[in-house]
């Protein structure tokens, strides 16, 4: 999958609101302007992929408490040169939660977001152009906490705002309640 495949996904995606529509266009512009958009060595920013994992009854979402950012997020990460954003999202879900069994709920993109990652001891501040997919899993599976997280757990949808009330997360919560 090359940049064109991501652009096809983005062109067929229906955004939920004006803000997301603007971000979707900005991601398309970024991908078109940056042949190295899947490489974290692109210092201004890079494409990332993540998974929003819901329980079968849509009452819970699997989140991780990110060690470096000290906040609750969906699992996801860098593409590291892999332009197949769906496969990257699946890999990140497995690595960051330990889930062995989960399925894609809908074809195509679930959400897009652009967010600034603050500077740290290794990297300057940069943007993540995040492509998000919707997965479903059963909450009785064993979870694994890896080095990137402080905790991984199922959170009731109505409690997510107590852990991370950012517009990025709350937009996915709204989409979940509309499923």
From TrEMBL:
Record protein name field: NUDIX domain-containing protein
PANTHER family, sorted: ADP-RIBOSE PYROPHOSPHATASE, DIHYDRONEOPTERIN TRIPHOSPHATE DIPHOSPHATASE
A matching Pfam family: NUDIX
Residue ranges constituting the Nudix hydrolase domain according to the UniProt record: 44-177
Taxonomy, superkingdom: Bacteria
PROSITE patterns to which the protein is assigned, alphabetical: NUDIX
InterPro entries attached to this UniProt entry: NUDIX_hydrolase-like_dom_sf, NUDIX_hydrolase_dom
């Amino acid at each position: 999958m090359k940049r064109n495949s991501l652009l096809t996904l983005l062109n067929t995606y229906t955004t939920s609101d004006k803000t997301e529509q603007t971000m979707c266009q900005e991601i398309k512009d970024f991908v078109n302007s940056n042949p190295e958009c899947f490489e974290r060595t692109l210092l201004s920013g890079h494409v990332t992929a993540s998974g929003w994992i819901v329980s079968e009854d849509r009452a819970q979402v699997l989140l991780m408490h990110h060690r470096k950012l000290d906040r609750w997020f969906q699992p996801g990460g860098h593409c590291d040169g892999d332009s197949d954003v769906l496969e990257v999202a699946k890999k990140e879900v497995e690595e960051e939660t330990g889930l062995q069994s989960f399925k894609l709920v809908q074809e195509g993109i679930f959400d897009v977001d652009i967010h600034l990652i603050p500077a740290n001891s290794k990297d300057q501040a940069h943007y993540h152009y995040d492509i998000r997919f919707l997965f479903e899993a059963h909450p009785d599976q064993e979870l694994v906490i890896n080095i990137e997280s402080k905790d991984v757990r199922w959170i009731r949808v109505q409690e997510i705002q107590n852990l991370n009330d950012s517009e990025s997360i709350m937009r996915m919560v709204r989409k979940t309640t509309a499923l």
